[in-house]
Each structure stands twice: as C-alpha cells, then as structure tokens.
Amino acid sequence: MDKKRDDDLIQRLKEVFDSALPKPGPEKYPDEALPLGTYVRPTRHNRLGVITDAFYGELDADGKKIIIYTILLFPQTDQLARMPKQNDQYYLTNEYEYEIIAYLMMHPANLSQLTANIGGGLFYES
Q1: Contacts of 44-49 spanning 24+ positions with Cβ under 8 A
Q2: Which secondary structure element, helix H or strand E, spans residue 57, and what is its range?
Q3: What CA dihedral angle connects 125, 113, 37 and 29, to 10 degrees?
Q4: DSSP state of 97
Q5: What is the pTM assigned to this prediction?
Q6: pLDDT tens digits in sequence order for the chain, 126 residues long
Q7: Helical H segments across 1-126, by residue range
Q8: Do the beta carbons of residue 91 and residue 47 sit within 8 Å?
Q9: What are the structural domains of the chain?
C-alpha cells in the first residue's frame, strides 16, 4: 500500500513540475549573444572563463529578454608558479549578460579542443 501511495505522490509531483516548467524545445542561440568560446570574467566570481552556451532568461524592466550565459570558469592560478591553486577546480555557472566582462580583443577559444585538453566530453561537433 505504501508503494502505491509513493508512486501516486511521485506522479503528482511530476505533473506539477511539468505544468510549471516550460517545455524543452529546440532553442536557438540568441543572435545578439557573444560568440561561444568568448573569454569572460563574471563579476560575481572574479575568475576567467569561456562562454559555453547562451539562452534567454526573464524580461528586464523595459520588457527586453535578458541573455543568460553558461560559463566554464578556469581554476585560479598561483601568480608566481602559474599552477592551479590546490583546492580550485573548474566550475560551471550561469550569469546574466550584465554581470560579465567580455574580452572581445581575444579570439574565442575552440571549445572542442579545450575540452579535449581538460579531459572532458562536454562539447561535440554537430
């Protein structure tokens, strides 16, 4: 009897989440977004990273869609040895477009090559 109630509760929760969350669909990369691989520094974390994705978030006060960037942050390095600090790791974060500093004078990073260098499989060529 408890198993049936648990299954029923799980099903009801799933229905609530499905009704509250937007349906996933083929989202287009925002036209006005910075290119993938652009080097950026989020003001919240003060670490260098690269843009790995962008999507529209909520609306601002003027009714314009805000772009949210997904950023892969690099470990901070020791200034003298240029080695990563002991406890620092790669970090993936979402940041609003007005909370990042973009380094547009540098060519964007090649994300496929970058993930091969850090031993990941996060990106793929389509």
Answers
A1: 44/93, 44/95, 44/99, 45/73, 45/91, 45/93, 47/73, 47/74, 47/76, 47/91, 48/73, 48/74, 49/73, 49/74, 49/91, 49/93
A2: strand 49-59
A3: 10
A4: G
A5: 0.67
A6: 567 777 777 777 677 666 655 555 567 889 999 999 999 999 998 899 999 999 999 988 898 999 999 999 888 766 665 555 556 678 889 999 999 999 999 999 888 777 766 665 454 443
A7: 2-20, 111-117
A8: yes
A9: 27-117 (2.30.30)
